[in-house]
Amino acid sequence: MSRHHFGIVDRTTASSSHSLPAGNNRSGAFIALLLLLLNVRARHIVTAYTLSDVGLAATHDVNVSRLVAKGAFTELGEVEAKKKCERMVGARRESIEALLAEMERRWGGADRYFLDVARLTENEVGWIRELLTAEVEGDLSHWSEANDLAS
Questions:
Q1: How many CB atoms lie within 10 A of CB 106?
Q2: Which neighbouring-strand residues pair with 3?
Q3: Average predicted confidence (pLDDT) for the chain
Q4: In angstroms, rounded to a whole number, what is the distance separating the alpha carbons of residues 21 and 51?
Q5: d(Cα 69, Cα 46) in Å, to the nearest integer?
Q6: Residue 13 in this model has a pLDDT that exceeds 70
Q7: In the β-sheet with 9-10, what is the strand arrangement from edge to edge?
Q8: Which residues does 139 contact at the CB level (< 8 Å), separation at least 6?
């Protein structure tokens, strides 16, 4: 028997089958921390995050224009404001890699964040892992290999 995150992912291979919210905002950062807590490999988190660009492509220009029209980053000037807005609505690999590195630097990883900053107990962290994973019988190595998000 092995444990699977959200009933889908084997902890030994720890790939993820859902997309990470785009942007380096609070929800994306929290989901990244949560996936790390569930032992999802950082490279899979990065890949899932960058897949968001595919979903965001259709609305990219509209969202950039909306942000610029609302006055986002006007203090930077028109050209720099537009560049910053473009980064905001994108899901660049460098952004999530920097976020994961900062999480490791600042807190020493997801476990330390949830224990020291969120002030959860070891039992509560264990309960979260238990709740967000499921026991699955059988060999799922074929699934993990076929659905591995990164080479």
A1: 11
A2: 135
A3: 77
A4: 10
A5: 31
A6: no
A7: 9-10, 2-5, 133-136
A8: none
